[in-house]
Automatic annotation (TrEMBL):
InterPro entries associated with the record: 3-oxoacid_CoA-transf_A, CoA_trans_fam_I, NagB/RpiA_transferase-like
Superkingdom, natural source: Bacteria
NCBIfam families (UniProt xref): pcaI_scoA_fam
UniProt keyword terms in alphabetical order: Transferase
Protein name in the entry: Acetate CoA/acetoacetate CoA-transferase alpha subunit
Pfam families for the chain: CoA_trans
GO molecular function: CoA-transferase activity
Organism: Celeribacter persicus
Length: 217
């Protein structure tokens, strides 16, 4: 883990054209500060991996409003009108992935697997162009791992060595995405001394975290 960095330094670590993972579920558990900072910086041609697009002004919404995203990989985009318009116009390339498959593809990248086998999507459009593997007479789709240049995650608490704790449903995709980003940037609500987070509440060990965004007034 590196020392805590400013929001401006975090934004500089994400170049145009990067692939980023963004945690959250319908705006809950999203690192909102860096989302807005990236939008304000005018980043371009990002590939975004996220469970959903929330609504126009929440979650990853500001990135679409600022036209930062070129490709989206997600499981749901139906409540964000900006995303719908950009997809309809051809500005945004979208890959829809069943939610369970999405999280397992991310986990596969994080733990070094070559892919996963899932029955979800067999016999549907989801299967188009994908390899089908038969095991014990049952067909499965071979789904490839999903990794990212940068994983942007949110935490309730972070200690001085980067151990992270999350709060309730805000946990969602954060621990899994922290496994699959080549660089992991966390935006915690608080940074506390080592020992302040009970060991059994640590869901992401500090060895996985590269940078922590320090709060400013």
């Amino acid at each position: 883990m590196h020392l805590a960095i400013s929001m401006e330094e975090a934004v500089e670590l994400i170049p145009d054209g990067a692939t980023i993972m963004l945690s959250g579920f319908m705006g809950v558990g999203v690192p909102d500060g860096i989302v807005h900072a990236l939008a304000h910086a005018g980043k371009r041609d990002l590939t975004l991996i996220s469970n959903d697009t929330a609504r126009d002004a929440t979650g990853p919404g500001p990135l679409f409003a600022a036209h930062c995203v070129r490709k989206l990989i997600c499981s749901h985009m139906g409540l964000n009108t900006i995303v719908q318009a950009q997809y309809a116009s051809g500005e945004l390339d979208v890959e829809l992935v069943p939610q369970g498959t999405l999280v397992e593809r991310i986990r596969a990248a994080g733990v070094g697997l070559g892919g996963i086998l899932t029955p979800t999507g067999v016999g549907t459009r989801v299967a188009e162009g994908k390899e089908i593997v038969t095991v014990d007479g049952k067909d499965y789709l071979l789904e490839t791992p999903l990794s990212a240049d940068v994983a942007l995650i949110a935490a309730r608490s972070c200690d001085y060595v980067g151990n992270l704790a999350y709060m309730l449903t805000a946990t969602n995709f954060n621990p899994i995405m922290a496994l699959a980003g080549r660089t992991v940037i966390c935006e915690p609500e608080e940074i506390v001394p080592v020992g302040m987070i009970p060991p059994d509440l640590v869901k992401t060990p500090g060895v996985l975290v590269d940078h922590v965004i320090k709060k400013t007034a």
